[in-house]
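Appendix B, example 12.
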Amino acid sequence: MKLCTFEYENRLQAGILQGDKVLPVEEVNARSGTRLPTELLSLIEADVIEELREASAGVVSVLRLSEVRLRLPYPSPPKIWCIGLNYKSHAEDLNEAQPEEPGSFMKPASSLFEPGGAIELPPADLSDDVDAEGELGLVFGKNCREVPIEAFEDVLLGYTVTLDMTALDVLRRNARYLQRSKSFDTFFSFGPVIVTKDEVPDVNGLEVVTIHNGRQFSRDYVRNMAHRPDALVALHTEVITFEAGAILSTGCPKGARIRPGDRVEGFVRGVGSITASVTRRERQQWAGSHR
């Protein structure tokens, strides 16, 4: 299944993509007599995706995709972990050595922006060298810890596409500034679709692409990662519990430097794509706490 959250008539709803149509979970409930949650993160947390699959079998929507706006699957994932320098080409682009163990960092919820929305570059005096990285994201379907490498798919719901931004000039000043360089507002997004794992028979065969201003900028295959998805899940769940709905973004072949007016897209064949425009945020005079 291809799961999403969409906006229709000023309401957010969970749905299933069916080609050029979207089937609201509300409609599944009405047709089948189920009482499934109608918010996507709640569906994942309730572990009822298979029930949704069964209940929606044979139910065809009349709501066209062109009539709705696809939104973030959910605005506050329980965790967002990302991996750096997982492809040799990305390490070479930044003149860095690949670490023996995956370099990882977290993204705050405040870094999220809507798929199809805008990346707001910081004021130029804060950062004037930002790259955008299209990546494969793993979406957890269960709370889990200490997952054996051979069981990694057992805890996954499926896959999505992510965009991860880095203020490279901030990072160059000091490697310990990694978290700061990654945490500006609008420096992360995912979706707008989550594809369940049964639709991806071989995750290592997936192609990961970053498109910059309509041209393919970088591409590589998951099989060429230094640390593949199974190893990433095993290693990180040794350290921390991942909850249902948590995101683990697996790294980019090479990031595209972005400027105001650009457009950027992350694309994973068989999973989907996520796009964004690029603007720059201007400093605003302090006027008390933000509300």
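The helical segments are 25-32, 40-45, 49-56, 88-93, 168-173, 178-182, 229-239. The chain has seven helices and 17 strands.
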